[in-house]
Structures are given as structure tokens and as C-alpha cells.
Write a structure and sequence with these properties.
Strand order of the largest sheet: 1-3-2-20-10-9
Radius of gyration: 23 Å
Oligomer: single chain
Number of helices: 2
Structural class: mainly beta
Strand content: 35-45%
Largest sheet: 6 strands, mixed
Helix content: under 10%
Order of helices and strands: EEEHEEEEEEEEHEEEEEEEEE
Length: about 350
Amino acid sequence: MDLNCSESYGTAKTPQGYAKSYAGEVEFEVRDARGRILKRVREPNIVKIFAKEILAHRLPHSKIWDPTASAGSGAWVSHNIDLDEFSAKYIAFGASFDADGNPLDVADTRFYSKDAVSGGYTPVSLGAGAEYDGGLVNPVPISEPSRPLKRIERVYFETSYQPAGTPLLQADVRAVNNVIVMETTLRKDEYNGYAISASDHFTLTEVALVGAKELSTSLGACECAPRDVFLTGTADNNDALLASASGTATISISSTETEVDMVKEGDQVKIVAAGTTAAADSVLNQLNPYYLVISKAAGGRDITLDRAPVDVNNVALSGDVGILRDGFRIFSHRILTAPVKKSSSFEIVVRWRIIMN
């Protein structure tokens, strides 16, 4: 394993030394069995869109002012958005491995392309669209405790400073809390491949900061992608809500379903076969089964999507379908410039810094 007592920082030096184009960084700190730091890798990460996204979801108060409440005198009342569901709680990982679980390192063309001139490998670009169904390229499947869903285990502010001489401020240097750090630790018994050999390891190639609902219990050995855990259906057995597709962008929840407000305007949903669950992943031959709900009245059964559901042959879906609500929200996602290997010999602390410039 290529580990040494060096640090790789790229062009970024310290949080105070970032160029304005940077808005954060991802850091991997590799430690041996005695806790000694063997390697620290920091990669700049542009997260300005994330900063706007997270503020958009967290800035609202948990209540709204209703001028007709309290016998017409007005009062603060709760609205219908669960703000906690939209806050960042997880750091998700993807790895380079084949169908048999063998690590592929930079030879994996899903993540890296080879430069014909230099012979080196560069990460492929992640577009702004819904590539990979909006999820990770190749997520590490969940099998707790060896391959768990990683919760954010520590949140803190790093000291940063307002430069002296800034207009409208007194001419001295003052500390401000504009660098927030979210941290988790990949322990020695986690993320160690598929136990094919004694030297088995995962080559971690991608990392994402995720907002989703709070899960406090173990997920067991579902051997599923992290996103599948947050696909929810009915309350009784979590199967998809029965609905009817009409060949247009409007689908209607069946009159037999009582949980009509499980899906709200602004949600993302996955259209699947009727009567199935998230684990079945029956996507009716669609190229991308995920859709944005752009209109849904409270208590109503009609849902207007951002586009008409069609299959890979561009034939519109009609008849009975199922609806699963997608609660896995990737706020920021990147492919690492250099893969990070994880085996049972090492513990890795992962920190996601966001700099609110």
C-alpha cells in the first residue's frame, strides 16, 4: 500500500490561504494502528452551490406567521417542511471495484481517464445533470459494521480571520466563524473490501456530502447502495405508493392509498413497477426513473412531474406504476484526484470543510 509520511495539499495551503474560487476542501487523514498520521491528503472542492443549497434549506424558521390564527390576531404556526431532513448528516463513499469485488484503482474508466502524453490518470468530470441517476458512480454497498453508512460524527468551526483594513470595519484583525468542518472516521473494521484475501482493501475514489433523514439504528447487511435506504414508500411495509400514469407529466395516486401527503411539492420521486419496493429496483425500462415533483396540492392525488415518464424507447408510461420518495440529497460530490486505499491496517479520518466566503 502506497503510504508514506508526507502530505499532499495540491494548490491549497491553509483555510486562510484559499483563492476565492475555492469554497471548501475534502481531507483524508490516514492513521496506523498506533494512531500515527501516515498521510494527509487535501483536495480543494468547489461547494458554492452546496452553500446556497444548504442555506436555502436551513435558513427558514420552523414556523410561519398565520395572520388568521389565534382568533384573527395572528400566531406562529408550524409549516409542513421537515428542516432537519434537509441538513447534512452523512458522508457517502464510492470505490473502484469490479463485479467480483476486486479493486481496480485508477484503471477504472468510470472514474479515471489516462493521459496519452503523460501516461498519468485524471478524474473524469462530473456534469451538472442527473448522471448516475443523481447518485454516486459506484457506491460501496452497505453491510454493517464492515461497510456501514457513515454518519457525520463531529461538527466544529475552525478559526479564521477577517483581514485588517476591510472597509466599514475597525482596522484590526478579528476572528470569525466562517469555516465549518464536518468529520467522520473510517475505523479499522470498516470499508475493507470483500474479504477476498488477507490484504483486501477498497480503493476509495469518490466522496459525497449528503442530507437525509436521521437514522439512528443499524442498517444490517442489506448489501444495497446507500441511496436505497432513503427510498421510502408506505408506512406499513414500505412498498411503493400505487399510482396511475397517463402518458403525460401528471400521475395520480390511487384512491386506495391513504398516505397522499407522503409526497410533497419539491420532492424527488422514483417511478417503479406497481407493488414493488426500493430493493426490487424495477424501473420499467426507464433511462432515468427519478423525477422532480413541481406541483402537488396538500391532500390532493395528482402529482405534476418535471417531465413525462417514458421508457428507453421514448414510449410514455401508462397504467399502474409505483412511487417511492427519494430522501437522499447529495449536496456536493467529487471524484478524488488520487484514490485513497482503505484496509484493516489503517484508520482514516475524513473531514469536509466548507468556507463561507
